[in-house]
Write a structure and sequence with these properties.
The structure is a homodimer.
Chain A lengths: L2 H8 L4 H12 L16 H16 L3 E4 L5 E5 L9 E5 L13 H16 L8 E5 L13 H6 L5 H6 L8 H7 L15 E7 L4 H5 L3 E7 L1 E10 L3 E2 L11 H18 L5 E3 L3 E4 L5 E2 L2 E10 L2 H22 L2 E10 L2 E2 L2 H14 L3 E6 L4 H5 L5 E6 L15 H19 L2
Parallel strand pairs in A: 3-4, 3-5, 5-16, 6-15
Antiparallel strand pairs in A: 1-2, 2-4, 6-14, 6-16, 7-12, 7-13, 8-11, 9-12, 10-12
Helix pairs in contact in A: 2-4, 2-13, 4-13, 9-10, 11-13
């Protein structure tokens, strides 16, 4: 090993400074219950964007904005012809969001730069910190809008045309807050992409592990299911003459979970939404509609779950005579992260002495779209009770620090020193 | 056998006249879809009451009204010191009701009187036809209000104080339509009580049987059940760390049905109403509330079902750690009808050559309250597809006629000729 490598391996970020930046940014849109409401393309979003870009400029970074409002904050390298090693996330929040979701990924990137500046460390490739427009999707759909346009998942025009409940469009609101840039989305090279994020689930906390090495994002299939029987009065209708839609539906709801359990450890099966007709105490349900959410770490596995649920429904129809319709609503392919990035995160956590475990992301992140364009990886840290999208969302300062130290190491390794 | 008995056994009602009266009464509150909307204590209810009492007076009957608006239409006997043999039902309907529910029982009684008049048949005891106030309970609760007050199930003041959604009270509305009588409810002797009614279920039609000999009314227990788990994001939460309230609830919903099937043929178990929280596609349900409706022909049997469902819930709680709360909402005791009345209906159906079978009533009827005061029985006829409380409610003229002929025979037998 040569001297510069030894130096950077000993480099540590300033956890207190990062924590203070998180708390400062959380003041913009702070809610009485300790959360943050800073919805995409509102005045508060602008204030957040203005603060973060000011911090970036204070750290000597240049700032470019693309046409969908994605912001790239750049620290030059020795060889600026190389594509940048990028990190990032988002600073928009849910209406009753927390301080960490997204914001952590952006400010961890800024802290990496501040640390490099402080210690006068140059990198071979440039380093960039991005924040992507409207990741949350709570005001405008689709979610992960900025990174999605960037990756060509859908068009700029499609995103521009999206409107909120008041009829205001993304185009108009982005213009209003002054964040329509010149750069064509996607016309921005990325050498590699890393994103730090709170886990938004209970696995790391439950296992008492500091770093989740994210291998990929689960493939998702969403369905609407309708079971149709015959509504009838609960009193005069004997059991043998019933066509009870709920009794058939509950069997299928159990299969949704059973199938996920057969395809563990990453199989997920959830029925989150149920609607009965007529939904009256003394009427046998004539129709039950419910949602099915199936996820797994590979598309082959999730499609196996889909096939099993469909086959079970067909058997139920044969047995009961009730019709069961299962309609696909949405499909998101599984996105494995790049082996080199996954290994880099593992090595960094190990070197730094942090407990770590392989994990998957069950939720969407901007890194999914970035992974379509460049080698990508994610670093998870625990969050309290696995809760996010909630004002009580919380994370421990030592985990915040640890995740950022891992990020520093992998970016340095990838950018070269 | 003596001569008068032979004569009355050959007596038959006039089916066309009865059908025509049903169609005439159905004009008051007729809906475009062929149903009837004649809700209790509305102007239309008054018009219906006025028409039926006019028909009664035309048939030589006297009319008395009690303080809750129950109407008793009387044909004297030879011995008017004897308590009357009574029949009746109700003429109020559901908002989207049909032509037969209730109305059939009242007009069948009127047709019995018309038939006796036509053939100059005297009875020993007087005969009365009653219609009871607000059987349906769709505007004012409790249901079966008039017969309930009459039988002392609840007080006149309680009934008077009931209000509709606009805040109008039973007392005011009954006064407004001019149907507050002088008679104290319950101060009206009954020698025996019979009620003809459409079945409101599919059993007779399914068995292709004309007359249902009703042995009694099912006991009912209503519960609200709440299963409490922990809501969590469907993506990042692995199956092993979930506390999915719906997956526990669906097992209990299946036991509600399974327990009813174990206590056949009259056991009933229904989950008619389900509510999830937060009821979102990608959130594991944190809480599920649902109704449980258990019925059986004896209270011992229905209480056995209750015990099994509760025991199952306790086992589920032990297995899963999720809390399950089961709260009693209402309890209606089973009401067997009087053996003499049941036998009389059976004999009459047999003598008349109608196919018949023993059956139970799963729904409430005024006869339940009358049975607390006097020997009582009910006569069911099939209705199309078992449907009632619906504008498509329908019954066949030959069944309408048959049920009324049975009523004629049992009333003559009981009143004496």
């Amino acid at each position: 090993m040569n001297t510069p490598t030894l130096t950077t391996e000993n480099l540590r970020i300033n956890g207190e400074r990062l924590w203070q930046s998180l708390m400062d940014l959380a003041q913009i849109g702070a809610t009485p219950k300790g959360g943050v409401c800073r919805i995409a393309l509102t005045d508060l979003d602008r204030q957040g964007r203005d603060l973060v870009t000011r911090w970036a400029r204070d750290a000597g970074m240049s700032v470019t904005v693309d046409q969908i409002g994605n912001v790239f904050m750049r620290r030059p390298g020795r060889n600026n012809a190389l594509p940048p090693v990028m990190t990032g996330s988002h600073i928009d929040t849910q209406p009753t969001g927390g301080k960490f979701d997204g914001n952590y990924g952006v400010l961890a990137g800024l802290e990496v730069v501040r640390t490099l500046n402080e210690h006068g460390v140059e990198t071979e490739a440039p380093i960039e910190v991005a924040f992507w427009t409207n990741e949350e999707g709570s005001r405008f759909v689709p979610v992960m809008m900025g990174s999605g346009v960037f990756a060509g998942a859908f068009s700029l025009e499609h995103a521009y045309a999206a409107t909120d409940t008041e009829g205001k469009s993304v185009r108009d609101e982005l213009t209003r807050i002054g964040y329509v840039g010149d750069e064509v989305p996607g016309q921005h090279p990325i050498g590699a992409y890393f994103e730090t994020h709170i886990e938004q689930g209970p696995v790391l906390e439950d296992a008492d592990v500091t770093i989740g090495v994210v291998h990929g994002v689960l493939g998702i299939r969403w369905f609407d299911c309708t079971v149709t029987g015959m509504e009838a009065h609960a009193g005069p209708t004997p059991m043998g003459l019933r066509r009870d839609a709920l009794q058939v539906a509950t069997q299928l709801m159990q299969e949704v979970v059973a199938s996920a359990l057969r395809h563990g450890p990453d199989g997920r099966g959830t029925v989150g939404m149920v609607q009965l007709h007529p939904n009256s105490r003394n009427v046998i349900p004539g129709q039950v509609k419910f949602s099915i959410d199936l996820r797994n770490s590979s598309d082959a596995l999730v499609d196996q779950q889909v096939a099993e649920v469909r086959a079970f429904a067909e058997r139920l129809t044969v047995q009961t005579g009730l019709s069961i319709q299962i309609d696909l609503v949405s499909s998101y392919l599984a996105q494995p992260f790049h082996p080199e990035c996954v290994e880099a995160v593992t090595r960094a956590a190990q070197r730094l002495g942090y407990s770590h475990m392989p994990t998957v992301s069950g939720a969407g992140h901007d890194a999914i779209y970035a992974a379509r364009l460049a080698p990508a990886g994610m670093i998870f840290i625990p969050c309290k009770d696995g809760i996010s999208h909630n004002e009580v969302e919380d994370a421990q300062p030592e985990h915040i620090t640890a995740g950022c130290n891992v990020l520093l190491q992998v970016m340095l390794e990838r950018a070269g020193t």
